[in-house]
Amino acid sequence: MDLELISSILIIIGIDIVLGGDNAIVIALACKNLPERQRNKAIILGTMFAVVLRIILTLLAVYLLSIPFLQFVGGCFLILIAFKLLTNNDGDDTSINGGVSLHSAIKTIVFADLVMGLDNVIAIAGAAHGHMYLVVFGLLVSVPIVIWGSKLILVLMERFPIFIYLGAGILAFTAGNMIIQEEKLLYLYERHQQFVDFIPLLTVLIVVIGGFISRRISARNGFAS
After folding, report:
1. Nearest alpha-carbon partner for 176 in 149, 195, 203
2. Which of 60, 40, 38, 32 is nearest to 164 (CA)?
3. pTM of the prediction?
4. How far apart (Å, rounded) are the C-alpha atoms in residues 5 and 2?
5. Do 136 and 164 touch, CB atoms closer than 8 A?
6. Intra-chain end-to-end CA distance of the chain, in Å
7. Which pLDDT tens digit goes with each residue over 169-208?
8. 67: left (phi > 0), else alpha (psi -120 to 50), else beta?
9. Alpha helical stretches, state H, the chain
């Protein structure tokens, strides 16, 4: 095994580990309302489907580069996902049975990974230097890291609710960065650079404050009923 191959493997694993932080947050938020017996199923199945999807996206990386406004639309979708995950109430069993299921959690995990992975598969493909087996190897190695990371975040969210807002804020910040990286809008961003630099923070404020207000209103309506 030559030095270039070893370095490629280490770089890919490093990228997957870094990106796994965001994925773990998505998984934890998506599963926080599930009954305990269903959480492991959602984490494992959601992660597996997401990895398969990430491999397919990497294979299509060159084609994805030619799709206009992909980063912008993906960022907008991720803002909606962050807000929705933040405003899902987890008060009692009725909310679990009525609004959250194993299927919906897996769907959220896979869709969020699709949105968040669009700007990262290209970097992974470049690090692999055209060797797709290296991409697959790196992704498979990252699976246990993402799974255990999501379980740790779930424990923190149960004990310290502030981590729910922190997780949603990280997703919102990622969405803001995706939006300002849209190549088709660079000419517009260059004219308003000061405002553009503020967009990631603005998305965080919108999601976190909007989610906080929504949760307070829902809680107040619950007490009123």
Report:
1. 203
2. 32
3. 0.63
4. 5
5. no
6. 67
7. 887 887 888 889 888 888 889 888 888 989 999 999 999 9
8. beta
9. 3-31, 36-59, 61-64, 70-87, 93-99, 102-117, 121-128, 132-159, 162-180, 186-191, 193-224
- 104: Cβ–Cβ under 8 A, 6 or more apart, which residues? none
Angle at CA of residue 63, ends 26 and 58, nearest 5°: 45
State pLDDT tens for residues 46-102: 878 877 877 777 677 656 656 788 778 878 888 887 888 777 654 433 333 323 578
Q: In this structure, how many other beta carbons lie within 10 angstroms of the beta carbon of residue 215?
A: 17
Distance from C-alpha of 56 to C-alpha of 138, rounded to nearest angstrom:
14
Angle at 49 between CA 71 and CA 113, to 5 degrees: 25
- Helix-helix angle 132-159:36-59, to 10 degrees: 150
